[in-house]
Amino acid sequence: MGFFNWAAPLVRRFGDRFTTDDTTAIAGWLRPAVEPDGHLLDVGGGAGQLAALLADALNAHVTVLDPTAQMLSHVPAGDRVTALHGSAEAIPLPDDAFDAIVVTDAFHHFRDQDAAVAEFIRVVRGGGLVLVLDLDPRPLAMRLIRWGEILLGEPGTFMTPEQMCAFMAARGIEGECEPLRKADYRFLGRVEKRSET
Ligand SMILES: C[S@@+](CC[C@H](N)C(=O)[O-])C[C@H]1O[C@@H](n2cnc3c(N)ncnc32)[C@H](O)[C@@H]1O
Q: What pTM was estimated for this model as a whole?
């Protein structure tokens, strides 16, 4: 986590990478669960650039959850975007509070991915969506990035798309993994909750 304290300005600049096409695609994947005025949680949302874009695109409320105060200090102020300090493994919010979760370039930073997924299932309503965008660690450039992150004290727990799909399914989120450009891929899954009756 210390890495993100000093890297916040860099990540702030890097976070501007989301293009109009990216935002349109991501909003399109989430829209089946997030209706206008709905609630989306951006876990590891950093400086909140994507959150602001998605709040506009979906006309929804977006909460940016991140454990790095320096990242959250860059979250753009707005009626529909809220910055919240906390980690994926212990989300400080009630059950069923969100229609969907989005996680971009952050899942491999979680130190306890098991606990994070359990929290996703808890805070997303039944029928809600979980969208994870992450990087496939197999290409050489990605292997180097992974080792760089580990040297900087990050966990570097990257998964291939196949591993991500299997990991989510084993914990109760069935979905699909699809390659995007370069090493990027997406996991999109639905949270099903058993009726308590
Ligand atoms: C590479 S940045 C990505 C930020 C943003 N999602 C984006 O795509 O631009 C990774 C973020 O994950 C956050 N992070 C690290 N560990 C986390 C955890 N356990 N729970 C939630 N967020 C975490 C970091 O503070 C950082 O803001």
A: 0.94
